[in-house]
Recover the amino acids of this structure.
């Protein structure tokens, strides 16, 4: 290769990188805009008014208690924003976990819940809701959260322990995870057979996931976990790239595959547990957001990781927005809205792509 | 020549394994006749069957229960289990993905949508049929939509395993979103009906149920078995398949169409019965290996045997019996992990 070609190739590479970075920045801007818009939907306040209120709150302005402005501030900050912010964080965290899982398992069908986390969490929550049995003394919101958190870690721990005995290839982990998912799901069904209609309704809502009952006190754990995991994963994104090449190549490139995989599983498990024990099981994002991102920015995890976090947040925030604005037609779960908007977009992305190559 | 003999011995062992499983299945079938509210023991069932075949019926009541109520359920359990596990084995090999099952294409969610629409709209969809047949026809029709989408897609662009999986996922999400919307607006009774359709049951089987799914699945199954070499080649990846003279794209499309067709034919009668289609082939793989010629019949036999036994337990557990999917997961999962640990060798996937 001549120097000229090399230089032009380099230029091209750099410009494609710039394009991707620009694309991510635009997505981020869209996300921020959507978030602010979402805060004003369903409040009865105009968009500019909402902006003003949020800005005033940030610069620490105080109002006379029970004045109209005080009410606006109170309403937006305590009723609307927690849900929006929770959608933001949960979307990012779930998409992140999905990205890690898919790269690590080298499997496009893998998602954030592949190790059975969701079914374990579901069992924990359903047991708390229906049987009133909880690891903590409070059988209410907190009891459900704690139960779900502990429950979600059970399948993950079983997977990690099993791997010692049956080898640690991705397919074994996937198989054990899937079997555990089936197992815990059928236990959930067993518990639900005995349930009354009301608690069944609660259990059902928990199973499809929701961000409507969020409060600020739910946020810290998932925020910290999401940020910490994002930084860790971003740092090791080159390792994830190597993992996606296949186990043999990864080993020959000097990566301790087994250890790295275990670390990834532990990290994603705790991350997902800290999210879904508050929100319930939100599907779709952990599976589809990484794929959408790969179709848009290619397979390099350096960009896929932040990209799918932004994508996941956007999808979930928009779904929450739509679901709230459709409230007058009935309580449509956020997951349904998400599938309705997200799945056709996803289908379009697959169909549109001309090249033969799979990004995977 | 020792190598050759060794090879033949392993082949014989595999066929022997399949034969033993089939015999076990027959025994289990007679055993399943003895299970239920009306008490009969194993030998009695055997005698009643023989009596029925020779036309020498002594106890009309017992004969009716065994031949007209329990036998079709047992036979259908075998058919359904065999079809799902065979379909799962083919899908896993074709898509080279251990997570694939016969529902990966979106067959189950399509069927659920069709059935839900029929349940919600009732007689309005097709006034000339009775309720249960409308449900079956709608479920069958809708369950073939995803594979139709993939076929249409394949005219314009090249298909790969990943794309098929992703299209299946997208279709599945769209369908289940529509179902959930229907469920929100539905009354409580319809909700219960949709829910019970979703978990799947074999309890409604009569002799009338069997001919159509049996016919379709026999044809599709036979063609799939006939294609076992191609399926083997596909396991090596699409590039290798090309170099061995198999058109990977065409093969994938043909096989997934066959699998979807036969899965749809059973699912529209039973509702979505999970687990067997995913785990049945894996169990077979652990015993038999990945060679399709043996894997396909072995999966079918193991799937049939497994679903038959699971259904026996499901029928007697709980006050009114439990969904067979629940029981198969609760028993099957520990069994599966036990087998994984016991075999301990690298799974057939690597």
């Amino acid at each position: 290769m001549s120097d000229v070609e090399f230089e032009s190739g380099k230029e091209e590479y750099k410009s494609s990188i710039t394009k991707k970075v620009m694309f991510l920045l635009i997505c981020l801007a869209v996300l921020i805009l959507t978030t602010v818009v979402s805060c004003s939907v369903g409040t009865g306040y105009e968009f500019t008014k909402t902006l003003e209120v949020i800005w005033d709150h940030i610069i620490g302005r105080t109002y006379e208690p029970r004045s109209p402005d005080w009410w606006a501030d109170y309403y937006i900050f305590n009723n609307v924003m927690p849900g929006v912010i929770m959608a933001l964080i949960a979307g990012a965290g779930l998409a992140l976990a999905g990205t890690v899982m898919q790269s690590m398992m080298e499997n496009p069908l893998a998602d954030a819940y592949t190790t059975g986390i969701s079914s374990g969490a579901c069992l924990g929550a359903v047991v708390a809701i229906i049987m009133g049995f909880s690891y903590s003394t409070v059988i209410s919101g907190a009891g459900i959260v704690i139960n779900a958190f502990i429950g979600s870690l059970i399948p993950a721990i079983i997977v990690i322990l099993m791997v010692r005995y049956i080898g640690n290839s991705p397919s074994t982990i996937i198989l054990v995870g899937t079997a555990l998912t089936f197992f815990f799901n059928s236990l959930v069904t067993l518990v639900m057979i005995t349930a009354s209609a009301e608690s069944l309704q609660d259990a059902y809502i928990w199973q499809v996931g929701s961000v409507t009952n969020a409060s600020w006190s739910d946020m810290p754990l998932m925020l910290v976990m999401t940020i910490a995991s994002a930084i860790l994963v971003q740092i090791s994104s080159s390792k994830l790239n190597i993992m996606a090449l296949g186990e043999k190549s990864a080993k020959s490139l000097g990566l301790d595959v087994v250890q790295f995989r275990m670390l990834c599983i532990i990290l994603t498990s705790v991350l997902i547990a800290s999210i879904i024990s508050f929100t319930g099981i939100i599907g779709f994002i952990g599976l589809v957001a990484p794929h959408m991102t790969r179709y848009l920015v290619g397979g390099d995890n350096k960009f896929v990781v932040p990209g799918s976090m932004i994508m996941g947040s956007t999808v979930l925030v928009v779904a929450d927005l739509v679901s709230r604005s459709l409230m007058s037609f009935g309580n449509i779960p956020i997951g349904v809205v998400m599938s309705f908007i997200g799945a056709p977009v996803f289908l379009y992305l697959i169909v549109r792509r001309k090249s033969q190559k799979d990004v995977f | 020549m020792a190598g050759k003999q060794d090879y033949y011995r392993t082949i014989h062992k595999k066929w022997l394994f399949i034969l033993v499983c089939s015999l076990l299945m027959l025994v289990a079938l007679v055993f399943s006749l003895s299970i239920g509210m009306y008490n009969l023991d194993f030998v009695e069932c055997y005698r009643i069957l023989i009596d029925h075949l020779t036309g020498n019926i002594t106890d009309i009541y017992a004969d009716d229960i065994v031949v007209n109520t329990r036998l079709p359920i047992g036979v259908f359990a075998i058919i359904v289990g065999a079809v799902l596990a065979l379909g799962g084995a083919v899908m896993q090999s074709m898509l080279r993905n251990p997570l694939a099952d016969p529902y990966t294409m979106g067959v189950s969610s399509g069927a659920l949508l069709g059935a839900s629409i029929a349940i919600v709209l009732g007689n309005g969809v097709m006034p000339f049929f009775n309720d249960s047949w409308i449900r079956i026809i709608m479920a069958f029709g809708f369950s073939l939509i995803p594979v139709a989408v993939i076929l249409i897609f394949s005219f314009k662009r090249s298909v790969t395993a990943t794309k098929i999986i992703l299209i299946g996922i997208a279709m599945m999400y769209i369908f289940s979103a529509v179902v959930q919307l229907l469920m929100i607006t539905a009354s409580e009774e319809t909700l219960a009906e949709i829910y019970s359709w979703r978990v799947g049951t074999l309890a409604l089987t009569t002799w009338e149920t069997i001919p159509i799914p049996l016919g379709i699945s026999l044809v599709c199954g036979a063609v799939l078995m006939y294609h076992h070499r191609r399926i083997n080649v596909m396991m090596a990846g699409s590039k290798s398949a090309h170099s061995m003279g198999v058109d990977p794209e065409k093969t994938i499309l043909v096989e997934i169409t066959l699998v979807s067709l036969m899965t749809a034919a059973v699912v529209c009668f039973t509702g979505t019965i999970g687990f067997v289609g995913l785990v049945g082939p894996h169990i077979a793989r652990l015993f038999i290996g990945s060679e399709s010629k043996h894997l396909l019949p072995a999966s079918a036999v193991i799937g049939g045997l497994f679903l038959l036994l699971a259904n026996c337990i499901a029928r007697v557990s709980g006050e009114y019996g439990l969904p067979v999917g629940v029981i198969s997961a609760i028993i099957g999962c520990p069994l599966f992990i036990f087998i994984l640990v016991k075999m301990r060798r690298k799974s057939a996937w690597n």
Notes: Residues 3-40 of chain A form the longest helix (38 residues). Residues 323 and 334 of chain A are 6 Å apart (CA to CA). Chain A has one domain: 3-352. Chain A has a mean pLDDT of 84.
